[in-house]
Design goal:
This protein is an alpha+beta fold. The chain is built from 20 helices and 22 strands. The N and C termini lie far apart (86 Å).
Amino acid sequence: MSVINILSPHVADLIAAGEVVERPASVVKELCENAIDAGAKNVTVEIRGGGAAYIRVTDDGCGMSPEDAGVAFLRHATSKLRDEGDLAAITTMGFRGEALAAISAVSKIRLTTRERGAESGTLVLLEAGEILEMQPFGCPEGTTMEVRELFYNTPARQKFLKSDRSEASACQAAALRCALAHPEICFRFLRDGDEQFFSPGDGREDSCLYALLGRETAANMLKCVGGQDGIEVSGYVSSPSFGRGNRGAQFFICNGRAIRSQLLQAALEQAYKNTLLTGRYPGCVLYLTLGFGSVDVNVHPAKTEVKFSEERRVFDAVYYAVLSALAGEERGRAPSAELPASVKPRGDFYRTMSAEQFRESGLSASSPRPAVSGAAAARAPSGSWRPTGLRAPDPQWQTRFDLSAPVSTEKSAQAPAAAGFPAPAGSRIVENAVQNVEKPRLPDHKIVGEAMKTFLIVEQGEALILIDKHAAHERMIFDRLKAQDRAVMAQSLLAPIPLRPDGADAELIEKNAALFSSLGFEIEPYGEHEYVLRALPADMEAGDAAAAVEEICEKLRRGRAPRPEDARDEYLHTVACKAAIKAGWDNSPEELERVAAEVLSGRVKYCPHGRPVSVVLTKKELDKLFRRIV
């Protein structure tokens, strides 16, 4: 008895469909790419019920003849390739001839199409890949594809679909990537009858970015132009001050195809090295143009991943183009130190003080204005990053993609009183509370100063101690939060902070409302696609709250905690990191003294991520370095 069975064509089609059609978003992507290959100038995508119930894609492309419409749903039927030689340089979005066959195998389809110049069009009705009806039909030039009841005949796949909101968001993201990749095409996306986005189709990258990603994003993007050795790079990258909590705002387009690439991701993020806060990621819309023979798109069923024949050249082209854009922003920015005193930003504008303090401060009309100092300086904008030249990328990029975003020096500071730091002068309640705190008794020590506004330099006995102030303060906050057997203390906001998460993050926020509440975040729906943050952890600044929510959503999505009991620690890491003082901030002597005291007492040795917070140099080691002793 034979144990090897030859599967029927229908079962084989269902298996093949699973490789190409993973979810409704896959259908949207494939049909949009077909419209692009057809030369369409206008494409409309409509979905209902998250896309599983209904998808319609309409274009004004070249259309199909009745003969082509009859064979278009057969496997490996394509107008894009003729022989194996065409695989060496693929110039179209589709080429395998599998998409329509895969989609039709797991859905019910209604196709209307009319070839340009033809007197009438064609109507084709299909179910589970079989043509039920085909006849002449009156319709405009172009093609309209309606896909209903996706996965109706494959329950195993259907039960793994996510919520309608999540699937609809994925469909919208797929259509948006196609629209960003082709500014010359007008894309329109409708969800349950409501228009979600509309691109002008004027061929301009800036207007396409503005229409699709919004005014705020467009206003914080920098023009990026560069390239070398036949590789052209253009588009936009985000300003270092406009980092995101995840990589969802990174869009890479290679020869008109939206792709995912760790190589390009690493090149982008390494260009931002030392300009972004920890846990923040840059956004971009980058267009790469290179020879079609230099990139292989036939490496993934969904054609979203590619291979480059010369990866180093591609990496360098993107890296230096992005670095030039960032350097151009710094050259065009007027340093705050050079501004007239009358317009120089002041960090103590809203500072509360007595009449006597006001007279002594020099802020009265009869007194000259002094420089900002002390607690006020802690809240004044810090210096800007000024590149002295384009630096070379990390030589170890091939074996180590450094995807972490280092600490920035661009954010102003205000140390949280709840973490043990005194409040600015004039905040009498907190000042009194700090005075009542018993300070730890330590051996004599002296804070010599700071290096690069990042490392405290402390002299103790015959040793010099360097302390990473952010890492140490992060540990102090984390230990205090972890020791609590209750929810993180929250502070209500007078002005709620608007949140605009994508569909996946919105679903995570709704499902994990109790978790966010336990971490001190009070999030409420505000309209159909927006939320507002009405409270945040007491230690955290309002400017860091949205980023913290994004990072927690990213951890929830990836399931970064190895054990359930470690999950809370992972989220507290984010809260502590956002609440801690940052490298580049100006801090008061009292704040620095508190950090030094915790480290010297031995209570703080490592940050929550395991990095050491201090390094000790003894006098003997220094004598050896200066050859005072052998």
